[in-house]
Each structure stands twice: as C-alpha cells, then as structure tokens.
Amino acid sequence: MTIPMVDLKRQYLTMKDEIDRAIQGVIDTTAFIRSKNVNQFEEEFAAYCGATHGVACSSGTTALQLALKACGVGPGDEVITVPFTFIATTESISNVGGKPVFVDIEEESYNIDVSAIEKAITKRTKAIIPVDLYGQPADLDPIFEIADKHNIVVIEDAAQAHASEYKGRKIGGLSPLTCYSFFPGKNLGAYGDAGMVLTNSEGMAERMRMLCDHGRKGKYEYEIEGYNFRMDGMQAAILSVKLKHLDDWTGMRRRNARLYNQYLEDVGVITPVEKEFAKHVYHCYVIRTKHRERIQERLKAEGIATGVHYPIVLHLQPAYCCLGYKRGDFPVSEHCAAQVLSLPMFPELTEEEIVRISVLVKESMPDS
Ligand SMILES: Cc1ncc(COP(=O)(O)O)c(C=O)c1O
Fold first, then answer.
1. Where are the domains of the chain?
2. Mean pLDDT over the full length of the chain
3. CA 86 to ligand 1 center in whole angstroms
4. Domain 8-243 fold
5. Which of 69, 70, 269, 338 is deepest in the core (most CB within 10 A)?
6. In the predicted model, what is the mean pLDDT of residues 302-319?
C-alpha cells in the first residue's frame, strides 16, 4: 500500500456531503466573486484565531504582498526574514519593490534566530517577517520587542501554522499582521488557491481590502491602484466547512507526531522539538539525518512518499544572486537544508502506517 505525503482524497471522503452541499450552494446562487461566503469566512477565521479583522485573498503569497503593501513597503525598503523558507516569503518582498535581508535560523525550531535580528537592522529596515515553519510559531515576544524599539512592523508568515499557539494564545491576533495560505495541502486547505491576512487594525484591514480589489472604494472609484487578489466564493464556502474540523485535525496531527516521536526514538534521527512557548501543529513532520538519501530511496521503493522542505536555501538560489550572499553566510540554514526530511503527515494517517514508515526509516540507517 502506498502512502502519500498528504492524502486530500481520504479527507474529502470523511466530509463529502458537507463539501458537496457547500459547492452546490455557491453554484445555485452563482455567487462566484465578492460573494457573502467570503465575508462570512473572513469573520469566522478571524474569530477562530482571535483577531479582529480578516482580509481574504487569492493565496498566501498575495496575503504577504497585501500586508507588505499596506505597511508601505516599497523601493529602497529592507525586510528581514530567513533564507530557510518557501520562496513566497521573499518573492512577496521583491514584488512590492523591497529587498529581502536574511537572518539565520535556530537549529532546534528551524525558525528565525532572534539573537541575530538586531545586527541585520539598518535605517532602511521597514518590516520583519518571521516564518512559523512546519507549523511551529517563531519566538514572537522578543521579535515584537525588537520591532518596537526600532519602529519596524512585524508581518508573521503563518502559511504553515493554522491553529498553532504561542504562550497559550492562538496566533493570528498577536502580530500586527498575520498571513495565511489555504493552499490545498495546508492544515486548513481550500480546493484551489486562497489566503488571508489577519489584523487587529481597522485601518490596515480597510487598506488591504481596497488593495485586494483593484484599489476600489465604490464600484468604479479608485482611491489607490491595487490588484485583483480576491478570494473566490467557492473557496470561501469550502473553507467555512473545513474550519469546523480544524481542531480535530490539529489534534490528529499532534497525535501522529507523538507516535512518530515514540517509534523513532532510538533510531538515530533528530525528531522535531516543540518549544516550551509553542503549540506545534505539524504541518510537516520533519526529521534530520545525515542519511537522508538512503532513507528516501528505501521509502520510495516501498511506495512511501517523502519530501524535503527545503533542499536549497534561498540565499544560494540563482534568483537571489543579485543580493550578494555566498555559501557560509547562514550556516545553520545551510546545514539544515542538507539534512531535513519530511515524512508523510496528515490527520488521517494511521498508527499502522506510522509504524511501517518508522520501521523502514530504522532499517535504512547504516548501522541497523
Ligand atoms: C512559508 C510559506 N509562505 C508562503 C506560502 C505561500 O502560500 P501560497 O502557496 O498559498 O501562495 C507558503 C505556501 O506554500 C509557505 O509555505
């Protein structure tokens, strides 16, 4: 039996009737664009995360771009983030005219090394984007302190961290702006692309709403020039149905992570560390090992998928050669990129499957 990284079909079959009804409802009302499903989902998701406003948009990438634009980031501005993330984090900075400035990560959590942030701040620094990688929040409080001291804004990239918590509080209402992706494979995933920015600032929300819909104030009145970054009604209707299951799915992911930790305990691989301030939601279950390729090959031969998030750090990507970084600049990121391995992780994964995967990992180690 094959085991994929993520099994969206298995999940759909557990709630087929609900989803089918929601989709049919959108078709029946033909409310495809600017539908009230979108406003409803904005309110539901913001309330779920403890934020005042939600601005729905077309993807996690456009969520980041809206947030940066709403903060006035533009040409000449620098934005601090990590090189060990998906390119959307940095692409959105460049796409509004800003310049990504990298800071290394911390080895245990794979998130931004807070102690390295201040050295990267210059007069041009406008924002900082901590990424909640794999589903675990960055250490937000010291980041907020640094940001306050230097008058820079924090835009949290929570694309992988729906429902995760920092010091017992759900993320989403903690940073000035928190950006989510609802890419299908995410912990809360649409049936296409979708995203959202959460904020407690009414002014920011209003500006992002305008930017998201061509900068329009009335039907043909444009206060500013914007984009077409709208979320469509079908995705919103599906997401409203799926949001009701998110707590259960998060619990199932955490149970699966506990099982993996248990079965991989004496195998000689590094298992994920949940920081004392965090509730990790395990978007990815990531181990670290020098023997990544042998494990991947063995699992592949048995029909088990694996992934590497991410094999090449951003500062060494050709797309960023213009930034002038070189190998060795962010050694922790580079080291992790060479050793991380994501094992299958989704709520419906069974204990039997986790045992099978763990046994094969063990058998692929050179001294087993
Ligand atoms: C950390 C991170 N940031 C941003 C994004 C962008 O999200 P999307 O694919 O919805 O544009 C993703 C998702 O792929 C991500 O993992």
1. 8-243, 246-364
2. 97
3. 6
4. Aspartate Aminotransferase; domain 2 (3.40.640)
5. 70
6. 98
Q: Which of 277, 276, 278, 246 is nearest to 49 (CA)?
A: 246
Pocket residue to mutate for ligand 1, from 59, 61, 314, most atoms within 8 A of Cβ: 61
Q: Given CA atoms 74, 76, 80, 83 in this order, what sign does their dihedral have? A: positive
Cα–Cα dist 156/198, whole Å: 10
- pLDDT surpassing 90 at residue 219: no
* Burial environment of residue 8 by CB neighbours within 10 A (0 to 12, 13 to 18, 19 or more): middle
Q: Where are the beta strands (DSSP E) in 27-98?
A: 53-57, 78-81
Q: Which of 108, 59, 65 is nearest to 207 (CA)?
A: 65
Q: Which atom of ligand 1 is nearest to the CA of 92?
A: 4
Is the Cα dihedral 175, 226, 196, 218 positive or negative?
positive
- What is the spatial distance between Cα 123 and Cα 77, in angstroms, rounded to a whole number? 9
Is any atom of ligand 1 closer than 6 Å to the C-beta of 138? no
Q: Which of 160, 186, 196 should be mutated for ligand 1, with most atoms under 8 A from CB?
A: 160
Backbone angles phi, psi at 6, to 5 degrees: -140, 135
Closest alpha carbon to 47 in 266, 196, 263, 224? 196
CA atoms within 13 A on the CB side of 24: 6
DSSP 285: E
Ligand 1 atom showing the smallest separation from residue 85 Cα:
1
CATH of domain 246-364: 3.90.1150.10
Q: Do domains 8-243 and 246-364 have the same CATH topology?
A: no
From atom 4 of ligand 1, which residue's Cα is the shortest distance away? 88
The answer to whether 87 and 96 are in contact (CB under 8 A) is no
- Measured from the Cα of 64, ligand 1's closest atom is 4
